[in-house]
Each structure stands twice: as structure tokens, then as C-alpha cells.
Write a structure and sequence with these properties.
With 348 residues, the chain is α/β, with parallel strands linked by helices. The chain has eleven helices and 14 strands. The chain has helices spanning 10-19, 26-35, 48-57, 129-142, 167-177, 198-206, 222-228, 237-251, 269-279, 304-316, 337-343, and strands spanning 3-4, 58-59, 63-70, 76-82, 87-95, 98-103, 106-108, 123-126, 154-157, 190-194, 212-216, 255-261, 284-290, 321-323. The strands form three sheets. The protein has a ten-stranded mixed β-sheet with strand order 3-4-5-6-9-10-11-12-13-14, with helices on both faces. Strands 1-2 form a two-stranded parallel ribbon. It has a two-stranded antiparallel sheet with strand order 7-8. A hairpin with a 4-residue loop joins strand 4 (76-82) and strand 5. Helix 1 packs across helix 2 (26-35), helix 4 crosses helix 5 and helix 6 (198-206) packs parallel to helix 8. The radius of gyration is 21 Å and the shape is elongated. The two termini are 28 Å apart.
């Protein structure tokens, strides 16, 4: 595969230019094109000869928008193609405060959560930092944004893959996207969702990161969690919650617990009582998620009425809880659904 210009610093791009025996000022032009999301053949202020020389060894953005589907609620699902032909996906969500993009961190996933389509074909490979960033820049450009006038306000690492299973590249991405020469998006505007890898959660705090940490809990006891999340066979709830408390203590950032409501599995008032017990002792928030049904998984989401009753029960117990607004249902909005449909040869 060709090397990616995306992810290189200004100095590194300057070296590329000098190695090609070009004038130094070309580095600024190339740099601005790269971080605006342009491909090499679109860098029209460069000579055709220089573009051809660059293209022999490099690619600008390793992520190409293959297809996009727009929902009735204006949510947009993107399919992306990578250099090696692999397909990933992401979602753009429109809120009053601006655009939020959900990005993938792996091609597939090896966590095997029973309610998620991302891992149906297993983990193929980790994404490079440039491929994670490439998703953001491709959509920013698609929306008419630039580096100085970006159209992306918030980023959620909650697409296909387990971010902390690709720790080095994900944290490199966090540094890149926060750079002034890039989109300069603060970590306070970035959420990282994990199924719960305790040592990596602690490492994230120890390494000085302060993103909003969201933990996919989805159960109030270890027995239920083992049924729906294989990772629960390696780490118990106490280990995960202890690491969340550690993260809060180190960063001062409140941790959010994601809780997908599954009919007959985790939606009883007894489960609400258990959540109160296991999460007591530090400020947190529970985000209740009406489950997007994945046909291949066989799980059924809790009825909306019961979801809201569960929320009221948590609040009566003194807990902070909200119900996530359902978005993009008509365009295969759940993680991995659209990619899986595409890979199976179905029309999208």
C-alpha cells in the first residue's frame, strides 16, 4: 500500500517535498490540501508532474466515501473504502449544537457482543490513526467544511471496533485531531466508547487523556453480562467499575454507562436496583439505549414504554439517566449493519 500523507506533520511533508527536489513553499500547499481532505489528483494548484510524482508513493486521504444514505431524520450513514479494499462505516448525526460524527476504529471487531453487527465477521485488522482521522476529514469536506471553518463539532469513537483494543492508533488519532493545524477539536468534544478493558481505561487516564469515557455496561450483574458480552468472561463488573472510578479520579470527567435495553434480559426493576448498588460511590450517568434489532443476533429490544419506566425507576433511586434518541433506523443505523449488508451483496 502507498504511504499516507495524512498524519504527517508540516515538517514531515516539507521533507517529502525536498526529497522530490521541489521548492520548499510547495509543502504549505500540500499540507493544507491534505488536512482539508483533498486527494492528490484534486490538488490543482500543484503541477501535474508534481502530483504524479507524489502519487507514485503517497496517497493523501486513505479513506474514500463509497456511499452515503440519508435518513428521514437527516442522520447520514457513510460507507467508506480503504486502500486495501476493506469497507468500514460511520454515522453523521445532526443536533441543535452542531454535527457529531461517529467513527470506526477497526475493520470489524473481535468482542462479539450479541446485540452488535460489527463483529459478525470477526476482526480483520486495526485502523491506522490516519484512517480514523480520514473519516472525519472526508465528511468535513463533504459538508463544505475547512480546517478553519469546520463542520464537525463532536466526535464519537463508537462505530465498528473496540477503540481500546487499538490503543496506540486511537490515542495517536486523539492527538492529531486536537492539533491546531488539523481540526483542533478538544478532547472535551470527543467521546470514546469501550466494552470495558480495565487496564486500558486506567492507561488512558495515566497517559493524560480526558475524553468523555462511555462504558458499554448493558447488564446489572455478571451472569447476565456473560450471556450478551463475551468480554465479561475476562473482566467482571467490579473490575470495570473500579477502573471507571480510577478514570474519574484522575481526570475529573464523569463517566457515562451505556445500557442497551434487551427484552427479558436486563429491563426489570430488579436490574435497576442492582445498577444502583454497583454504581454507587461516584458521579455517573446512565444512557439507556432502545436496542436496534440485529436479525442475525436474535435479541429483541425492550418496548419504549418499558424503557421510559426503567428510566423513571433509576431516577427514583437517585440516579442520573436519559433515554438516547433513536436515529437512522431506516438506513441501517446500528453499528455494523450497513457494512454487513454491503458485504453480503445486498443493495444499499
Amino acid at each position: 500500500m502507498k504511504k499516507s500523507l495524512l498524519g504527517l506533520s508540516y515538517e514531515e511533508i516539507e521533507k517529502v517535498v525536498l526529497d522530490l527536489k521541489q521548492q520548499k513553499f510547495r509543502a504549505k500547499q500540500i499540507f493544507e490540501f491534505v488536512y482539508a481532505g483533498y486527494q492528490i489528483d484534486e490538488m490543482t494548484s500543484l503541477s501535474k508532474e508534481l502530483r504524479e510524482k507524489l502519487a507514485e508513493t503517497y496517497i493523501s486521504n486513505p479513506v474514500k466515501i463509497l456511499k452515503k444514505l440519508v435518513s428521514k431524520d437527516k442522520t447520514t450513514k457513510f460507507l467508506y473504502e480503504l486502500q486495501d479494499g476493506n469497507i468500514i462505516e460511520g454515522v453523521l448525526m445532526n443536533y441543535k449544537y452542531g454535527n457529531t460524527i461517529c467513527v470506526s476504529t477497526q475493520v470489524g471487531c473481535r468482542m462479539g457482543c450479541k446485540f452488535c453487527a460489527s463483529g459478525l465477521n470477526g476482526l480483520l485488522r486495526n485502523l491506522e490513526a490516519s484512517e480514523i482521522l480520514g473519516q472525519v476529514l472526508a465528511v468535513n469536506r463533504e459538508l463544505g467544511g475547512t480546517m478553519s471553518e469546520r463542520k464537525i463539532c463532536n466526535i464519537v469513537l463508537m462505530g465498528s471496533g473496540e477503540p481500546l483494543d487499538n490503543y496506540e492508533q486511537v490515542t495517536k488519532f486523539l492527538k492529531l485531531v486536537n492539533e491546531k493545524y488539523c481540526l483542533n477539536i478538544s478532547e472535551r468534544n470527543i467521546s470514546l466508547s469501550t466494552c470495558g478493558l480495565p487496564e486500558k481505561i486506567k492507561k488512558l487516564a495515566d497517559d493524560g487523556f480526558s475524553v468523555t469515557l462511555t462504558i458499554s455496561l448493558h447488564a446489572s450483574n455478571d451472569e447476565t453480562r456473560k450471556k450478551i458480552m463475551p468480554i465479561a468472561n475476562s473482566f467482571c463488573l467490579k473490575e470495570i467499575i473500579d477502573s471507571a472510578k480510577y478514570y474519574f479520579k484522575k481526570t475529573g470527567r464523569r463517566v457515562v454507562f451505556e445500557y442497551a435495553m434487551i427484552k427479558g434480559e436486563n429491563d426489570s426493576f430488579e436490574c435497576a436496583q442492582e445498577l444502583k448498588q454497583i454504581l454507587k460511590g461516584f458521579p455517573t450517568h446512565i444512557n439507556l439505549i432502545p436496542l436496534n434489532t440485529v436479525a442475525e443476533r436474535g435479541l429483541v429490544g425492550t418496548e419504549k414504554k418499558q424503557v421510559y419506566a426503567f428510566q423513571k425507576k433509576l431516577e427514583s433511586l437517585g440516579m442520573s439517566a436519559t433515554v438516547r434518541r433513536t436515529m437512522g433506523e431506516d438506513i441501517e443505523g446500528a453499528c455494523g449493519q450497513l457494512r454487513n449488508k454491503f458485504l453480503n451483496g445486498n443493495n444499499v
